[in-house]
TrEMBL record:
It holds the Pfam family Cys_Met_Meta_PP. This is homocysteine desulfhydrase. It comes from the Bacteria. The keyword Ligase does not apply. Belongs to the trans-sulfuration enzymes family. Transmembrane segments: none annotated. The keyword Glycoprotein does not apply.
Length: 385
C-alpha cells in the first residue's frame, strides 16, 4: 500500500495489509519457517529467515510509511539492536555527537564503540543548537561522522531543533540519526526534517502494551538501508514472527493511544504545576518549558511523558513510587498502563538528572483516576519525608 498522502493515524491502521484478493485474510499470516525451498543461484526470493521473512514485512511497511520514508523500515529484536545498527554507520575514528541525556544504553553503546575504534563521543545539550553545531566541527577535534538526536530527551525532556541540527550535520559531512521513540511518528517525522535515519524502540509506543521487545530502523536512502540491513543480517538481532505480529497489532491503535495519553499528560502536567506538594513539573506542553515554543513549532502534540519533583527530595520521590496504587512503579514507558520511575535509582543514570526526579509515562486510563492516585500518593510521600 503506497498512499503518501494519508494521515499517520490512517497509515497505522491501513498499512501492511495483504493484497485485496477475493478471500484474502485481512491480517497478514504468521509464517513459522526458518528456511525456504531454494536451488541454484538465489534471486530476490526468501532464502533464510535471518535475512528476510514474511512475518516482518507488514510491520516494516507500516513503520516505513509512518515515518514517510518511501521505503520499508527494518525490524530488529529490540530498540537497542536497531540503535547498535545505526551507530555502526559512524566512521571508525571519528566523533559521535550525542545528547548527554540520551537513552542510557545508547550512550554506553556509543562510548564502547568509539573506545574500541579510536573515536570519541561528544555529549551535548541537544537543546542548545549552537553548542551542537560547534561540537560537529570543533577546532582541532576529531570531525563528527554521526549526530545522534533524541527529542524530547530521556528523562530531561529537552527538545532539539531537528531541522536546524540535521542541516548543520549534513553541511559538516555527518549523518543524522533520530531516536523517535518518545515523540512517535505522530509527534514528529524526522526524515521529513532532514534526518537520515530514524530508530525506534518498538517496545514502547509503537507496540504499546508492554508485552514484547522490538526495534526498528527507517531511512529514505536505499544505500543506508542496505548497510543497516547488512548489519542486521550479520549481527543476527532479528525479531521472532510472533513479536512482529503482536507489534503490528499494537500499532493499529497507535493514534488512539497517543491522542489519549498526550492529552492526559498535558492535563496532569498543568494540575501538578499548581499542586502544593510539587516542587517542579516539566512537560514540553507547559509554557514554562524552556523549549515550549520550539516544540509547538516542530511537533504535533507534546508527547505523553512528563517529569515531576515532589517536595521532600529523593526520599519523598521513592515514597511516592510505593504509595501509588494505579500507576505502575516500573522502568520503561509507552504502554497503555501509566507508569513512573525515580530515574536516579539506576546507578548509571546521568548525575545531571535530579535525585528526586520522577519520570511519568502517561497511559490511557481515565485522567481523573490517574490524578486522584497521584494526589493521594503525593500526600503520603510528603508525610514520609
Ligand atoms: C527503551 C528505549 C530504547 C531501547 O529500546 P529496547 O527496546 O529496550 O531495546 C532506546 N531509546 C529510547 C528512547 C528508549 O526509550
Amino acid at each position: 500500500m503506497t498512499h503518501p498522502d494519508l494521515a499517520p493515524a490512517t497509515i497505522a491502521v491501513a498499512a501492511g495489509r495483504p493484497d485485496r484478493q477475493q478471500g484474502a485474510p485481512v491480517n497478514a499470516p504468521v509464517v513459522l519457517s526458518s528456511t525456504y525451498v531454494s536451488t541454484g543461484t538465489p534471486g530476490a526470493e526468501m532464502l533464510y529467515a535471518r535475512y528476510n521473512t514474511e512475518s516482518w514485512l507488514p510491520l516494516e511497511e507500516a513503520v516505513g510509511a509512518l515515518e514517510a520514508a518511501g521505503l520499508p523500515g527494518l525490524a530488529f529484536s529490540s530498540g537497542m539492536a536497531a540503535v547498535e545498527a545505526a551507530l555502526h554507520l559512524a566512521t571508525p575514528g571519528t566523533a559521535i555527537v550525542a545528547p548527554r541525556h540520551a537513552y542510557l544504553a545508547t550512550l554506553t553503546a556509543a562510548r564502547e564503540r568509539t573506545a574500541r575504534e579510536g573515536g570519541v563521543v561528544r555529549e551535548v545539550d541537544i537543546a542548545d543548537t549552537d553548542a551542537v553545531i560547534a561540537a560537529l566541527a570543533p577546532d582541532g577535534g576529531a570531525p563528527a561522522s554521526l549526530l545522534w538526536i533524541e527529542s524530547p530527551t530521556n528523562p530531561m525532556l529537552e527538545v532539539a531543533d531537528v531541522p536546524a541540527l540535521a542541516a548543520a550535520a549534513r553541511a559538516a559531512g555527518a549523518l543524522t540519526v533520530v531516536d523517535n521513540t518518545f515523540a512517535t511518528p505522530l509527534g514528529q517525522r524526522p526524515l521529513t526534517q532532514g534526518a537520515d535515519v530514524v530508530v525506534h524502540s518498538v517496545t514502547k509506543y509503537l507496540a504499546g502494551h508492554s508485552d514484547l521487545l522490538m526495534g526498528a530502523a527507517v531511512t529514505a536512502d536505499p544505500e543506508l538501508r542496505e548497510r543497516l540491513h547488512a548489519r542486521r543480517t550479520t549481527g543476527g538481532a532479528v525479531p521472532g514472527p510472533w513479536e512482529a505480529w503482536l507489534a503490528l497489532r499494537g500499532l493499529r491503535t497507535l493514534a488512539l493511544r497517543v491522542e489519549r495519553s498526550q492529552a492526559s499528560a498535558l492535563e496532569l502536567a498543568r494540575r501538578l504545576a499548581g499542586h502544593p506538594l510539587v516542587a517542579a513539573v516539566s512537560h514540553p506542553g507547559l509554557p514554562s518549558h524552556p523549549q515550549h515554543e520550539r516544540a509547538a513549532r516542530l511537533m504535533d502534540g507534546f508527547g505523553s511523558i512528563l517529569t515531576l519533583r515532589p517536595r521532600g527530595g529523593g526520599t519523598a520521590a521513592d515514597a511516592l513510587t510505593r504509595a501509588v496504587h494505579l500507576w505502575v512503579p516500573a522502568t520503561s514507558l509507552g504502554g497503555v498502563e501509566s507508569s513512573l520511575e525515580r530515574r536516579r535509582r539506576l546507578p548509571a543514570e546521568a548525575p545531571t538528572v535530579p535525585e528526586d526526579l520522577l519520570r511519568l509515562s502517561v497511559g490511557i486510563e481515565d485522567v481523573e483516576d490517574l490524578w486522584a492516585d497521584l494526589d493521594q500518593a503525593l500526600h503520603i510521600a510528603a508525610a514520609a519525608s
